Amino acid sequence: MEMDSLRELYIDELKDLYSAEKQLVRALPKMVKNATNPQLKEAFENHLAETEGHVARLEQIFESLESSPRGKKCVGMEGLIEEASELLEEDADDDVLDAGLISKAQHVEHYEMAGYGTVRTWAQVLGEDQHVKLLEQTLQEEKNADRLLTQIAESSVNIDAETGDEDEEEEEAPTRSRSGKRSAKRPARSSRKRSTR
Q: What is the CATH number of the domain that holds 14?
């Protein structure tokens, strides 16, 4: 495709973002299903609803441009989603998988933040003030989602993933009772492994 102006580049990048968001709408339910931390599951569910709103905003922009949002595939998002799918195929402890899902989701958020920051700036240059407002709203939601994922990771998920094996080893280690007999403590929580999706 030949591009002779910033407006053409702007429309092309908007199409890329539209494709990215549509792919994410299809991928997020799988992340919701596989997340075990309740806060993480809720964050993914909420961001799915937000992502549907991002699609609607982009459609509103394309309507004002009298252009179609279709016709381009975002290979960047396709690759990020593929990486997340590969993670789900691993035989990982729940806490470790949740930490990995946060990592993959934050890769997605940073990718989208870069894209939305760019098109918002181009919209300013092109005098598309209404587009600027819509794109800024989406950009802020992506930043908020990223911050929330960091908070969930740092407050619980990363800690649980790091200490999970140590806790189990301590819980399963034989101990001496008051009578002097050796006994093995039972694990307090399961370390369920995932092998199927």
A: 1.20.1260.10
